[in-house]
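== Sequence, structure tokens ==
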Amino acid sequence: LSSSLPAVFPRDQAVIQNFLLPIAQTPAFVADVTEAVDIWPIWLCPIRNFGAPAPLFALPLDPEQYVSVGVFGVPRRGAGGGGDLEEAKQGLEMAMLQRGGRKVHHAASYYPLELFYSSIYDGNAYASLRDKYTAEGVFPHVHAKVVEDNGQVPP
């Protein structure tokens, strides 16, 4: 979807996002989506970690259930409704974080570098692994691979 939707609609007009929210926060986040971009239908799929040794999609290892909220399409608000669509997408990311959610990174992300490595992911652990495996200058940073810059999705 993330590669075919832009063939029909320019990237600056389409929303291709997938958020993971605690189940109790999902109704409020759906209201956030409606307010920000008013895209319907949206994808709702329950997800839970089943005692795996590592978390699924960087979800906490806890028994709480999550819901994948997929927002795919052209908004009735945002760029099409006279607003800034990129700003609306950034606002949805912040609303998701405030509600204890996580992002699935197959879609464009807009996190500032500091927020990405200080609040969302453990930047110190990441830096230690990069040092341990001599990744600097060999592999790009994860932030550079998943965060959209000036409307361009990283290759």
